Amino acid sequence: MSDQNLAHDAELDCVGLYCPMPIAKTKEEIENIEVGQVLKVEADDPAAEEDISRWAKRAGHEVLGLEKSENIITFWIRRNK
Fold it and tell me: Which residues form the catalytic set?
């Protein structure tokens, strides 16, 4: 899954933050967008890939895209509820 041009409604920069902050901030930020909107999250914590993907699935949201570039992981997450 990789698409740099995926449309998004909000962005969250978690670069430089380590577990559990990227997931905590993502949870907080997803509450600030409407259902159906997309949040773009960037993180450089190696654990973020699995943590955020697992959290999104468990919370009922959808990871539309995941891209790794050097040490940055970018997620596009659609809020589903």
Answer: 19
